[in-house]
Amino acid sequence: MSSEDIFESSSEDIFNEPQPQTSSWGKSNTTKSVSTTRAITPTNNISNSNSVNNVNNDRIETELAKIREDIANDRRNNQDNYQDLLKRVDKIQEEMDMVKSVVGKRIKAMEKKLEAESMKRRKIQEWIKETPGVNLENITGGKPIVSIQSTDTSKASPKPSKKRSRKKKAPPPEEEEDTFAYFGYKAPTETEEIRRPAFKRVHSENPILQSLENLHIGTEEITSVKMPDNDKSLEYNDLNRLQYFLGQKKYDKKYFRYPKLTSLATSFAEHGGKLIIVPTDTRIDDFTFAIKPSDIIFPICPDGLHRSQVLYLVLQGIKRMTGSTEGIISPHGSIRGYDPYSLDQEADYRFVSTSEDNVHPVTRIFENTFGQKKASRFGNEKVGPNPDLNYTRRNGGITTPINSTVVSKLRESMNEYFSLYYYKAKPSSGRCIYMAFGSAVPVVLRRIMESNTAQELQAANCYVLALPWTVELYSQDPNPTKLQRAYAHYASFFCPIAE
Fold first, then answer.
1. End-to-end Cα distance, the chain
2. CA dihedral over 190, 140, 421, 289, signed as positive or negative
3. Model's pTM, two decimal places?
4. In degrees rounded to 5, what are phi and psi of residue 83?
5. Lowest mean pLDDT, pick from 269-273, 284-288, 321-325
6. CA distances from residue 494 to 232, 282, 427, 471 in whole angstroms, order as listed
7. 351 near 345, Cβ under 8 Å?
8. How far apart (Å, rounded) are the C-alpha atoms in residues 488 and 477?
9. Is the separation of the CB atoms in 206 and 481 below 8 Å?
10. Shortest CA distance to 202 belongs to which of 370, 312, 317?
11. Which of 42, 86, 138, 326 has its CA 20 to 30 A from that of 449?
């Protein structure tokens, strides 16, 4: 066989599909196997691709079904939330309608009350014009009001003169020493007829104080003798109220610095006194305390040099509104004033002298703000401005001891003096009111109980008004604005009334 024949034979084997031969079973079988394999392979690839596509389609359908379900759930939830919001809006609208109704009724009631009050005032003004010499405020404890006749004698009809036999009056009995004579206030006796002139406001000679009084206390004349509805002077011995302020609001530790004030207040109430605790925010709690012309008032703070000095000016203005200039006692410092409240040498008592206060920065600011110097503290009239009530004396940074016997005797004398002339309550025509700030309150309660029996306190109508305000207005950056703010704040919860 030639090379060409071999090449042609090879070409046929490559390009022509071999035919099966019956002579050799093995070769024919091999050829079938190869031929079958080539024919089946494309079909299997298509089948696998279809199965993969089916799986993907199923997964997509599952995800789509889940998304549809989530959307449906969200719609249901949104619908429920929307319904809840509608219900809340309806409820709020009902509450607003109710509030509007209540407020409307209150406004109408206030308008009616204001109209009635205006009508009453118009009638009084007309009556004043028509009636000569009227004395509206001449209220004499149930006695009839005596009107003053006109002084024009030309129109008056002449009356025949009658001779009256005048009997000599017996000399008045000797009066016992009156404690209130030390206060510049004399209470009327039982037999003395009380005749008060027509009400007339007294103005301060100090133009600065007169301006402050007009601004923060008022300018209208007082014609009503009715106690204000929110006056708290009748809420005494209310142990639930005391426990609320001293316990729940922590007034005892925070403002009065005495953790056992509740028990002390209870003892004071059982002893015959009346304790009133002023809320810290008088506007929220709607607190007002009525001041009458016959009241005798004692302004007190721990040193008698700051808070009680401003309160002293306020109370003077309140009294002037009622036409009275009496009954306000000089400021007192219950802890660092003239009264050694405890004779124990280890007690926390240290007297602050007037000379020490004169160099205090607040003193000059006080004088510039109110146009006058501070009032002398109670006890100054007894021993002067700088007594030796401390066991040591400070002079130019040097501390020197003082004879302890001399100091002890002076302390005993001043303690007795305060027990007799300051804390000793005596019956009078008005109330006896001790107004004490902060940590001065427990000291005042103890000293009053030490100086009086229960019968004496009940007869004297004794009150203690506890004021829970600290000295921050004066200790931190003192300035005239803060002092004026303190004046306005103290004046905001007092209401002057006529008697």
1. 159
2. positive
3. 0.60
4. -65, -40
5. 284-288
6. 11, 10, 23, 20
7. no
8. 19
9. no
10. 317
11. 326
Q: What does DSSP assign to residue 247? A: I
Residue with tokens 């009556």: 127
Going by pLDDT thresholds of 50, 70 and 90, the confidence category of residue 333 is very high
Collect all residues with Cβ–Cβ distance below 8 Å to 66 and sequence separation of at least 6: none
* Cross-strand partners of 496: 291
**DSSP class of 294:** T
Encoding tokens for residue 169? 């009056």
**CB-CB neighbours of 365 under 10 Å:** 16
> Residue 264: pLDDT above 80?
yes
Would you put residue 257 in left (φ > 0), alpha (ψ -120 to 50) or beta? left
Per cent of the chain over pLDDT 70 is 66
Which tokens in the block code for residue 19?
A: 């035919």
Give the pLDDT of residue 177: 47
- Residues 311/490, Cβ–Cβ less than 8 Å: yes
pLDDT computed for residue 128 by the predictor: 56
Q: How far is residue 253 from each of residues 74, 236, 261, measured CA to CA in Å?
A: 56, 21, 9
Model confidence at 238, pLDDT cuts 50, 70, 90, reads low
Q: What DSSP element (H or E) covers 495?
A: strand 494-496
Angle at 484 between CA 481 and CA 485, to 5 degrees: 85
Q: Report strand pairing: 392-395 vs 398-401.
A: antiparallel
Q: Tell me the C-alpha to C-alpha distance, in Å, between residue 47 and each of 44, 52, 495.
A: 5, 9, 103
User: In the chain, how long is the greatest CA-to-CA distance?
Assistant: 196
Using an 8 Å Cβ cutoff, are 235 and 274 in contact? Answer: no
Residue showing tokens 């401390």: 390
